């Protein structure tokens, strides 16, 4: 109570976990503050309800800056302790002004992401894959099979893969070896949920982590791993425009609309 505090409203995907990890990885900072001003402590609110209550205590709607992703982590920083509370609301960018408190009350936003089932994988297990998607509350709002051109296949690879010519050639050769099935999927927090289901890109790593991960079940090796999933919201928007330029069959998915604003 004797020291001034700085209260910050922070927004980021997975705000709770990222902030907690960040604070845990600042041992030098904690040691300096601890020696000069007592023991450094951190208290985190772990529920959306507590996040909303704390936000109302510290801020009004006029205090917030809009036009960024509605991902909240409110942090009170003093010389002696941290008070952190956070809530993941969605992964979408809003370009128009809306009440940020309304996002805290509404919950996760319905988003779209892209799943590409690689050559050889979809022709053998399509029915099971679609059943799994339904069980995970995904809605298919776009579907097409396509033969990937080399330049398109190249665009799906990560920068790390492109650094090794042999790895790059192996992936491009495989992706263009037959027809692939592309799905546009919709649900709340779709991008992260899909990535969590797919698991690590190497099926052996996925198998060791959880044999029920999709790449653990359908993948053969790091190249023929069964699936490609959009790795972020921005990439999901790019993938949707790339594979479904004609549009999607979902009236309430505003992703492409808002990207164009």
Question: Which descriptors apply to this entry?
Answer:
261 residues, 13 helices, transferase, alpha+beta, Alpha-Beta Plaits, 2 domains, 43% helix, four-stranded antiparallel β-sheet, elongated, 8 strands
How is the topology of this model organized?
Layout: E1 6-10, H1 15-24, H2 27-37, E2 41-45, H3 48-58, E3 71-77, E4 81-88, H4 100-106, E5 110-117, H5 122-135, E6 139-146, H6 150-155, H7 159-162, H8 165-175, E7 180-188, H9 190-198, H10 203-209, H11 214-218, E8 227-229, H12 233-243, H13 255-260
Parallel strand pairs: 2-4
Antiparallel strand pairs: 1-3, 3-4, 5-7, 5-8, 6-7
Description:
The protein is an alpha+beta fold and 261 residues long. The protein has two domains: 10-24 and 45-65 and 99-106, no CATH class; 108-249, Nucleoside diphosphate kinase-like domain (Alpha-Beta Plaits), CATH 3.30.70. Helix content is 43%, strand content 20%. The protein contains 13 helices and eight strands. The strands form two sheets. A four-stranded mixed β-sheet has the order 1-3-4-2. Strands 6-7-5-8 form a four-stranded antiparallel β-sheet, sandwiched between helices. Strand 3 and strand 4 form a beta hairpin.
